[in-house]
Write a structure and sequence with these properties.
The chain is mainly β. It contains no helices and 24 strands. Helix content is 0%, strand content 47%. The strands form six sheets. Strands 10, 11, 12, 14 and 15 form a five-stranded antiparallel beta sheet that branches. The termini are far apart.
């Protein structure tokens, strides 16, 4: 029997990558030699081992020859395995093994065709301030969207369309049957407030329902945080420098802007988000249209210091909150 194999590779990028391939066996009438690729799902440019087995011939005393893409690679008595590296994405490697023992001649062929799949995720309802260049990170009970972007090739070298493939999703070890299926390349979920991370797995199958890969990503849940900035009457909010610990008031008035990184929902002035300001422990009222801004004025001839504290919460989300404080030093103008 002669076995043909094709291998596809899945890679996920986030902060995390995954590698997946598949091997398909197809019978041939005159062979009792079998090639096995290990690891079963190697990646592009990855070291793999090809090994042979036979249920009827003692390969330890057989003369075994190996070739890669038609070129002799190795030959020796009892050489039941070889090690080599795969090529790049979409570049096939054809492995042929032959075994001779007396008048018995056996052969088998395996074709390795690396492919890759990117796994992307985003927190869809998270606030980040202007000019923030990083990734919006998920916090407790936030919404997350996971997307598969495949570059998977058929045996003829033509890439599969995303809609042609089937996806079986899992979340924290539980199969999500109702969210899986053909073309289901995206997964939307809401974090459970009791979990500090979401473990997402996916298994991909081709149009013949043959598994071509699997992998996963762990999405860690973070806490929101508050940073303070000064709002200049001419230049606007000075996002290039955050305020922390203790600052001196050089002007009569300070507009203190609080930016609640990674709070949810995305609109920081939403009625679903509450800002609780206090000055030396006493509550301070702010403008309801801009609840994240506190205006502080120092009195003429009065010096000293004051502790400004802020707590930001989202009452509909049990564990979603952030706090910060800032010491203000008055010079007594």
């Amino acid at each position: 029997m002669k076995n043909n194999y094709s291998l596809n590779f899945i890679k996920a990028i986030i902060p995390i990558f995954l590698f997946s391939f598949f091997i398909i066996a197809e019978a041939q009438t005159n062979s009792v030699l079998f090639i096995k690729i290990s690891p079963e799902i190697p990646g592009a440019y990855e070291e793999v081992t090809a090994s042979v087995s036979s249920p009827s011939v003692n390969l330890d005393i057989a003369s075994i020859s190996w070739s890669l893409d038609g070129k002799k690679f190795s030959s020796n008595v009892g050489q039941k395995s070889i090690t080599f590296k795969t090529k790049g994405v979409g570049e096939k490697t054809t492995v042929v093994a032959t075994a001779t023992l007396g008048n018995t001649f056996l052969s088998d062929t395996a074709t390795i065709n690396p492919s890759e799949v990117d796994i992307l995720w985003e927190a869809t309802d998270i606030y980040t301030p202007p000019f923030y260049k990083g990734k919006a990170l998920p916090t407790s009970e936030s919404s997350i969207k996971v997307t598969i972007v495949p570059s998977v090739f058929k045996s003829n070298g033509v890439a599969y369309k995303t809609s042609e493939l089937s996806y079986k999703w899992s979340r924290n070890g539980e199969i999500l049957g109702s969210l899986s299926g053909r073309g289901a390349s995206t997964l939307s979920l809401k974090n459970d407030y009791l979990k500090r991370e979401e473990s997402i797995g996916v298994e991909t199958r081709n149009t013949s329902d043959v598994k071509i890969g699997k992998g996963g990503v762990i999405i860690r849940i973070v806490d929101p945080k508050i940073l303070f900035y000064e709002k200049n009457p001419i230049l606007g909010v000075l996002y290039n420098k955050s305020l922390f610990n203790s600052i001196n008031l050089s002007n009569e008035e300070l507009s203190l802007v609080a930016e609640p990184y990674f709070i949810s929902p995305r609109d920081k002035t939403s009625s679903k988000i509450q800002y609780t300001w206090s000055l030396n422990g006493s509550p301070v009222a702010t403008n309801s249209k801009n609840p994240n801004i506190l205006v502080v004025r120092q009195q003429t001839g009065v010096g000293g210091e004051a502790n400004v504290s802020l707590e930001v919460t989202s009452p509909s989300k049990i564990l979603l909150s952030a706090t910060n404080n800032l010491m203000l030093n008055f010079k007594g103008r």
